Amino acid sequence: MSDAVRLVEIRDVPLDPAEILALVEDPAAGGISMFVGTVRDNDQDKNVTGLQYSAHPTAADKMREICERIAATHDVIKVAAVHRVGDLDIGGLAVVVAVSTGHRGEAFAACKELIDTIKAETPIWKHQLFTDGSTEWVGTP
To answer: CA 61 from chain center: how many Å?
Structure first.
């Protein structure tokens, strides 16, 4: 397990970007990059009223594996990732990831790869609720 991985969690309570930022700060870091995913009010030309996220019991383990991989393949000093489950309103924070590295370019690259890989590989599913009463599951197998 890498010392670079500071936090990986799936939470059913609101997320705090300041907490995640504090976890990746380091005197050796020349760059910190953070991504905060929020619930938007629309998708595919439909109005969204909210989301429900659910996760497989192995989701946190998969996210940790991804964080370890990013730390090993980039010049990462520290990395943290949290994802929300449960009911989220418009504007709610769904995911917060951050990395610190020696240089800004590497921070941007590592953070982008981190969030893209979490979205692609972590068994977390989004249930979108639309204003017309319809719903849609996103990310299910």
So the answer is: 14
Query: Is pLDDT at 101 greater than 90 in this prediction?
Result: yes
Domain 5-37+59-124 in CATH 2.130.10.10: no
pTM tops 0.90, yes or no: yes
- Predicted confidence (pLDDT) at residue 139 exceeds the cutoff of 80: no
What is the dihedral sign for C-alpha 66, 89, 11, 102? positive
